[in-house]
């Protein structure tokens, strides 16, 4: 192809580079896809998110489905049934339930996969402009190429609002300085524009000339969308040009505000970062499901007991009847046709073998003791519940237009059992919309809000977010007279305007003379600081890869950005090296106070340092986020030294991050303190109320924040987490020893307080406040961990400040390991991801800080306060309904099995069923499946209003009141009783009659189905027409099925139902069975509700009364009353 | 809410129960168990040998007294005990296709064995254990002493009609009009009755009744119908031809039953009693709950949440 032209020219170069490159790098020859892909090691650009192809669908899908143990069980039973000696059911009937379940799932999977196939096809056939040399002419032009044919090494041109077909390194853009803006909404959900740069070196060369003349060596494909390490070698230049994350545009981004951009593909198809990030979140399993497995084991035990009993009794029967079996007409042991052989029995292999056969046949007949349909019902129910959660208007955040999202579909019911919430602070409790409130500049405090006014006057630039300014500072800045203080104040604002990664976007405002500037950036703090600087007249108006332009009090000045050390959570600061218009080189650093005071030279201005520290303390105690700003002028030698180190570090392919960090640490020292800023992070709406509700629901709220202690405490107060009557235990240690001591103190204090106040009324609430440093020491050692746990569990509130992301997960693990309490983690930032994944339930706030937390979460929503309706209302409902559904499914199938079992006792223990095999098979699939699903989706034990009004009702889930062993035993006893009623009432009535097995079987089928459906109906609390239709419809459907089965001449029992329905006895028995079967459950329920009601029943009673009171005396308060 | 429901159930159930008892008591039932009584005393120790000996005449005539008036129709049943028609080995041993279609004569189902083929290798029609074990005792009835009444022109004879004892659905769909018994009961072990090879299966009503397998090991099956009224105290003779081998299995109880029918079918004391007992239990429970509510009234603190 066209690329071949350059191949020979490249040969020598590629040889030399082999030695230079290391094994981990991939070499991409720019514009030479053929050579690049010579060794076929790079993925093509066709993507495939679909799991199956038409040929692999069946085996793969079945393989995946059979990962469920239950399915293997049912398959084994279906296989057993195929053995001639064990054939209990016909071929069709034995395979049907499993086939049904598998088919439903397979159809669902197939549909989803078909949609993915369609999406893939659309994606792969999109067109991209790929540079292609015209053969012969030597010229090159952009040829439309399908995305799937784009290869690594191709040069691609992307126009505005288009998306690059693969991950590519920018070579040139429409902007002369090489800037391109991208939006990564589809990638990480962030809507702000990010800047990407083409390198100066490639910008100046024509793209056609670059083709074949440059090689990019980049790291192997990885899923880090915020990292990229590579370097570029140009033929004519000897040095290597470093490439970083800011030089690459990723598949899935959109090019914005840029007419075009040209880049070279480095990762394609499944190796792009977007595709690598496509993997789903790890699946969690709900607590209820784990418990359910325990009860499933019990059921297996019961099943084995039943089967053993039948097998043993059949052995006894065969033994006692041994002499009669030969002649008894119903046994006919001998096969007389083979009478030449001695002992030629027909289908009889001796008592021992018959016992084994009978045991296995019993397993086949009683198989539905383990409810197969439960698994599929649970999935459907969770889908339904998710639908209602997503549709709930009270979980919809209008300000960010974000709906509630259910990302994990298998832990809905866990929401009803949460005991411990771990919350991030910034962005979760607070809005993460930063507002610049005050500053301490050169030791002078400007925090008097009363003096602040909106900006007015003749500014040509207006920041999009209005900022109030302090008149005094304004005057100080404008006064060009060179007072020392004025100089430092100006320098402070220059630092604010330069030391950041903000991109200014100039918009047209309503007033043509005033330009509105929108500051786009990844950090809300920086946006606030730059907006503040702009308000004071230091307007950042332009940013390119090499310089920024600041409108300093009306005069545009160019500052060269010589180097930038990005913020990282270890250093907790960032710095820039700026070549100022006055030819000096300055280093500006901004960062958290803890990290800044270590690098500040306190001898330069000790008064200022002292005053600033004092101001910082007062800022953080009113809940402001503080940043400290420092500056240092670099000497020429210092700068050159730094520049060499920086270049070396930034072109390194391996360990670049560490190298850069040490370069930064080297230069960031002996800083002169300029001042500090205080930024307000407003609380989200309804946070204090939400926390109060959660506390009433006896959910512990732990706040884990990266902020400093004072800030954390003040936020704690403002969101009502901490109250004045609380005793605070503060652990704030710098060494192992002191940490141990403070833990011991804390423990003794807890013990003392607890012994003082034994009754719960006069209990002193405790709050534990602990910082990240102490946690480092504590997590070192299990003994200390144990102690911390003891203290933390005794406290009502725990506040952890200055914690690193991994420590957050450690804290969650501390609780998860030692208690069975359900934990929930909620956060919005990338630093919360580990905690969200660690907790039983992870919730992401779709807020300001991007979407990484949301991507890792199980549920996502817009506001912290939505936790209250989510847990107290939906969680409660989901848990209650799911718990009931599981129990009901156990009960329903067990009742049926017991009825079969009683009958087996009257058939010589030979596993005959009077109920037709089709009814056996359809029982849990059609006869009784729909109502339980509908009820589990729609039933509501209490109204939303009541649940929100009395948060303590949430305790039902925490105490596992709706699903526990006691309830299981109770419902199993009920099941035995009902089966006795179903079996023995007709049995006794028909004892000496001409009843045939098909008619009796039909009666039993109908009575079991009606009984279990009425049982369900009795437990339904909120009826809707759908519930009515499902329950009564199921009974009608069963009746129709029984009639249809009995109308098919080839099935046994032809016409039986018509005959038996014509007798009065049938109807009389049906009525008797239902009433006798229901009375114990009915009476027990009533007695429990009357004499030992639980909270939920009390609340329901209140609801009923309130309702009737509102109808009769709308204004009268409710008072004493009696129950029916 | 609970108490009224329970009381209501009691209120409904007791009358129904009483009605059932009354109805059941109206039914007159005469049961005569003959399995030992029709074996000569000298053969009682080996009943199987007696029944298998074809040379002995097994007719036995006994007199029954009618306790109460019996209005027509009078149903005649035979009753067997501990005969497991619901035994898996037995109840599946049939071929429905063969019964229906002459073409399917060779379709002896897997489970028809060991009564699938005759000794000559031909398929048996109808095959399987159920058909093979067809019940073949016969009964005939006659009036012993007739109590004279005014204006009576002699008693109608006590003929037993065997028409219509099967279900129309069986005659119409399950048993074919063109299917004739073949090779039936030819084996070395005789299970039960013979079939007239000239009559199609759709007319063999005894076979149909027998092949509609009973649900429980003690069962009755309709033998025939007697269109005659019997009066209280009347003596009738029943002539039993005792040829069915019920002695080879435990129990072996055989009985002939004469019964009239009420709206609940045969005589059945259980259902009525059950209704009355359940009704009373509901009343008692309602009473108990009422008392409990009076003794421990709902207090206000009951209505406080935890």
TrEMBL record, chain A:
It comes from the Eukaryota. The active site is at residue 424. It catalyses: ATP + H2O + phospholipidSide 1 = ADP + phosphate + phospholipidSide 2. This is Phospholipid-transporting ATPase. NCBIfam families: ATPase-Plipid, ATPase_P-type. It is a multi-pass membrane protein. The gene is LOC100836682. GO terms for molecular function: ATP binding; ATP hydrolysis activity; ATPase-coupled intramembrane lipid transporter activity; magnesium ion binding. Its main location: membrane. The keyword Transferase does not apply. It comes from Brachypodium distachyon (Purple false brome). Residues 8-17 have a biased composition (Polar residues). ATP binds at residues 424-426, 526, 567, 590, 625, 705-707, 802, 808, 831-832. GO terms for cellular component: plasma membrane. Keywords: ATP-binding, Magnesium, Membrane, Metal-binding, Nucleotide-binding, Translocase, Transmembrane, Transmembrane helix. InterPro entries: ATPase_P-typ_cyto_dom_N (IPR023299), ATPase_P-typ_P_site (IPR018303), ATPase_P-typ_TM_dom_sf (IPR023298), ATPase_P-typ_transduc_dom_A_sf (IPR008250), HAD-like_sf (IPR036412), HAD_sf (IPR023214), P-type_ATPase_IV (IPR006539), P-type_ATPase_N (IPR032631). It is found in: Membrane. The chain crosses the membrane at residues 297-318, 351-376, 890-909, 921-938, 967-989, 1001-1018, 1030-1058, 1064-1084. Residues 854-1094 form the P-type ATPase C-terminal domain. Belongs to the cation transport ATPase (P-type) (TC 3.A.3) family. Type IV subfamily. CDD domains: P-type_ATPase_APLT_Dnf-like. It is an enzyme of class 7 (translocase). Residues 32-92 form the P-type ATPase N-terminal domain. Its EC number is 7.6.2.1.
From TrEMBL, chain B:
One of its GO terms (cellular component) is membrane. It comes from Brachypodium distachyon (Purple false brome). Belongs to the CDC50/LEM3 family. The keyword Membrane applies. Residues 1-19 form the signal peptide. Keywords: Membrane, Signal, Transmembrane, Transmembrane helix. The gene is LOC100844726. The chain crosses the membrane at residues 274-296. PANTHER family: ALA-INTERACTING SUBUNIT (PTHR10926:SF27), CELL CYCLE CONTROL PROTEIN 50 (PTHR10926). The keyword Signal applies. Pfam families: CDC50 (PF03381). InterPro entries: CDC50/LEM3_fam. It is found in: Membrane. This is ALA-interacting subunit.
């Amino acid at each position: 192809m066209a690329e071949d032209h350059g191949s020979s020219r490249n040969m020598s170069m590629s040889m030399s580079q082999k030695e230079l490159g290391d094994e981990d790098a991939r070499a991409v020859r720019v514009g030479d896809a053929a050579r690049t892909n010579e060794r076929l090691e790079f993925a093509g650009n066709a993507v495939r998110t679909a799991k199956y192809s038409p040929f692999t669908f069946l085996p793969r899908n079945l393989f995946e489905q059979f990962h469920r143990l239950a399915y293997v069980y049912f398959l084994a039973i279906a296989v057993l049934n195929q053995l001639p000696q064990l054939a209990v059911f016909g071929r069709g009937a034995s395979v049907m339930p499993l086939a049904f379940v598998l088919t439903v799932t397979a159809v669902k999977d197939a549909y989803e996969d078909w949609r993915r196939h369609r999406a893939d096809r659309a994606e792969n056939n999109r067109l991209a402009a790929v540079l292609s040399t015209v053969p012969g002419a030597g010229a090159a032009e952009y040829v439309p190429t399908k995305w799937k044919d784009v290869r690594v090494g191709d040069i691609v041109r992307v126009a505005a609002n288009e998306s690059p077909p693969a991950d590519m390194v920018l070579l040139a853009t429409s902007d002369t300085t090489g800037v391109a803006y991208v939006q990564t909404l589809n990638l990480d959900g962030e809507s702000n524009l990010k800047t990407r740069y083409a390198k100066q070196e490639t910008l100046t060369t024509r793209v056609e000339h670059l083709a074949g003349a440059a090689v990019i060596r980049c790291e192997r494909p990885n899923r880090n969308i915020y990292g990229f390490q590579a370097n570029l070698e140009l033929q004519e230049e000897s040095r290597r040009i470093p490439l970083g994350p800011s030089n690459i545009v990723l598949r899935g981004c959109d090019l914005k505000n840029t007419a075009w951009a040209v880049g070279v593909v480095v990762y394609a198809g499944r190796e792009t970062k977007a595709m690598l990030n496509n993997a789903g979140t790890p699946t969690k399993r709900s607590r209820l499901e784990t418990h359910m497995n325990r009860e499933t084991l019990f059921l297996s035990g019961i099943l084995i007991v039943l089967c053993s009993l039948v097998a043993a009794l059949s052995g006894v029967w065969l033994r006692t009847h041994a002499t009669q079996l030969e002649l008894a007409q119903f046994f006919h042991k001998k096969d007389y046709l083979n009478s030449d052989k001695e002992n030629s029995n027909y289908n009889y292999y001796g008592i021992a073998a018959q016992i084994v056969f009978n045991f296995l046949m019993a397993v086949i007949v009683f198989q539905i003791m383990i409810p197969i349909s439960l698994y599929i019902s649970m999935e459907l129910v969770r889908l339904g519940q998710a639908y209602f959660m997503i549709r709930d208007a009270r979980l919809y955040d209008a300000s960010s237009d974000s709906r509630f999202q259910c990302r994990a579909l298998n832990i809905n019911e866990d929401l009803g059992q949460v005991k411990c919430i771990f919350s991030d602070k910034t962005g979760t409790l607070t809005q993460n919309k930063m507002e610049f409130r005050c500053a301490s500049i050169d030791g002078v405090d400007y925090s008097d809000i009363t003096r602040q006014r909106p900006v007015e006057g003749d500014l040509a630039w207006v920041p999009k977010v209005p900022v109030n300014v302090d008149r005094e500072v304004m005057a100080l800045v404008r006064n060009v007279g060179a007072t020392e203080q004025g100089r430092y104040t100006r320098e402070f604002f220059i630092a604010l305007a330069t030391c950041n990664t903000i991109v200014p976007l100039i918009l047209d405002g309503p007033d043509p003379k005033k330009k509105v500037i929108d500051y786009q950036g990844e950090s809300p703090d920086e946006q606030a600081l730059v907006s503040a600087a702009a308000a004071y007249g230091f307007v950042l108006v332009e940013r390119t890869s090499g310089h920024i332009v600041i409108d300093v009090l009306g005069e545009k000045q160019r500052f060269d950005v010589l180097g930038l050390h990005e913020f990282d959570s270890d250093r907790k600061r960032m710095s820039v090296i700026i070549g100022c218009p006055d030819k000096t080189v300055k280093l500006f650093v901004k960062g958290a106070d803890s990290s800044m005071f270590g690098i500040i030279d306190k001898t330069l201005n000790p008064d200022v340092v002292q005053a600033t520290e004092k101001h910082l303390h007062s800022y953080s105690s009113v809940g402001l986020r503080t940043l400290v700003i420092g500056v240092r002028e670099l000497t020429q030698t210092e700068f050159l030294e730094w520049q060499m180190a920086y270049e070396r570090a930034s072109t390194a392919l391996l360990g670049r991050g560490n190298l850069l960090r040490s370069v930064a640490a080297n230069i960031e020292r002996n800083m002169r303190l300029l001042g500090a800023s205080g930024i307000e992070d407003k609380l989200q709406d309804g946070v204090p109320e939400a926390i109060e509700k959660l506390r009433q629901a006896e959910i512990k709220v732990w706040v884990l924040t990266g902020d400093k202690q004072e800030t954390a405490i003040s936020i704690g107060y403002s969101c009502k987490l901490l109250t004045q009557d609380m005793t605070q235990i503060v652990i704030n240690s710098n060494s192992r020893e002191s940490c141990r001591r403070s833990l011991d103190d804390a423990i003794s204090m807890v013990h003392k307080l607890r012994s003082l106040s034994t009754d719960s009324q006069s209990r002193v609430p405790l709050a534990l406040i602990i910082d990240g440093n102490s946690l480092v020491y504590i997590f070192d050692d299990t003994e200390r961990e144990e102690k911390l746990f003891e203290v933390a569990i005794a406290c009502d509130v725990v506040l952890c400040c200055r914690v690193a992301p991994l420590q957050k997960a450690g804290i969650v693990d501390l609780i998860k390991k030692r208690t069975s309490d359900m934990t929930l983690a909620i956060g919005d930032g990338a630093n919360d991801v580990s905690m969200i994944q660690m907790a039983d339930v992870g919730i992401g706030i779709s807020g300001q800080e991007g979407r990484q937390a949301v991507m890792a979460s199980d549920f996502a929503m817009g506001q912290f306060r939505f936790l209250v309706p989510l847990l107290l209302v939906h969680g409660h409902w989901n848990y209650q309904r799911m718990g009931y559904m599981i129990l009901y499914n156990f009960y329903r199938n067990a009742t049926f099995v017991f009825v079969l079992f009683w009958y087996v006792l009257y058939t010589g223990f030979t596993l005959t069923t009077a109920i037709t095999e089709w009814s056996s098979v359809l029982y849990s699939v059609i006869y009784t499946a729909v109502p339980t699903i509908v009820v589990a989706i729609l039933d509501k034990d209490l109204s939303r209003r009541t649940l929100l009004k009395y948060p303590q009702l949430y305790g039902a889930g925490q105490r596992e009141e709706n699903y526990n062993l006691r309830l299981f035993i109770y419902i199993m006893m009920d099941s035995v009783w009902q089966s006795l009623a179903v079996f023995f009432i007709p049995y006794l009535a028909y004892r000496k009659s001409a009843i045939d097995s098909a008619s009796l079987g039909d009666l039993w089928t109908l009575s079991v189905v009606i009984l279990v459906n009425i049982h369900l109906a009795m437990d339904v609390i909120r009826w809707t027409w759908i519930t009515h239709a499902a329950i009564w419809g199921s009974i009608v459907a069963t009746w129709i099925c029984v009639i249809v089965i009995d109308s098919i001449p080839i099935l046994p029992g032809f016409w039986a139902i018509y005959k038996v329905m014509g007798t009065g006895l049938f109807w009389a028995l049906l009525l008797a069975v239902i009433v006798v079967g229901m009375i114990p459950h009915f009476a027990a329920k009533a007695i429990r509700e009357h004499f030992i009601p639980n909270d939920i029943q009390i609340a329901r009673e209140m609801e009923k009364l309130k309702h009737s009171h509102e109808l009769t005396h709308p204004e009268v308060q409710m008072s004493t009353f009696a129950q029916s | 809410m609970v108490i009224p429901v329970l009381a209501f159930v009691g209120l409904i159930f007791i009358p129904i129960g009483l009605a059932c008892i009354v109805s059941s008591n109206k039914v007159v039932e005469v049961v005569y168990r003959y399995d030992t009584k029709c074996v000569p005393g000298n053969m009682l120790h080996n009943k199987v040998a007696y029944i298998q000996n074809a040379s002995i005449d097994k007719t036995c005539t006994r007199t029954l007294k009618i306790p109460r008036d019996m209005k027509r129709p009078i149903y005649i049943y035979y009753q067997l005990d501990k005969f497991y028609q619901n035994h898996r080995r037995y109840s599946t041993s049939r071929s429905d296709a063969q019964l229906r279609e002459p073409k399917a004569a060779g379709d002896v189902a897997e489970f028809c064995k060991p009564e699938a083929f005759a000794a000559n290798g031909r398929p048996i029609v109808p095959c399987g254990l159920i058909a093979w074990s067809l019940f073949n005792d016969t009964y005939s009835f006659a009036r012993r002493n007739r109590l004279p009444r005014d204006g009576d022109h002699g008693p109608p004879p006590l003929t037993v009609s065997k028409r219509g004892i099967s279900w129309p659905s069986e005659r119409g769909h399950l048993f074919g009009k063109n299917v004739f018994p073949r090779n039936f009961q030819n084996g070395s072990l005789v299970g039960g009755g013979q079939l007239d090879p000239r009559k199609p299966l759709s007319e063999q009503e005894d076979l149909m009744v027998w092949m509609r397998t009973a649900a429980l090991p003690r069962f009755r099956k309709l033998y025939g119908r007697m269109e005659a009224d019997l009066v209280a105290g009347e003596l009738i003779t029943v002539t039993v031809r005792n040829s069915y081998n019920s002695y080879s299995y435990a129990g072996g109880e055989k009985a002939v039953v004469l019964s009239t029918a009420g709206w609940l079918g045969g005589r059945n004391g259980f259902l009525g009693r059950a209704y009355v007992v359940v009704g009373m239990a509901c009343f008692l429970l309602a009473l108990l709950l009422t008392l409990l509510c009076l003794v421990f009234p709902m207090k206000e603190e009951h209505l406080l949440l935890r």
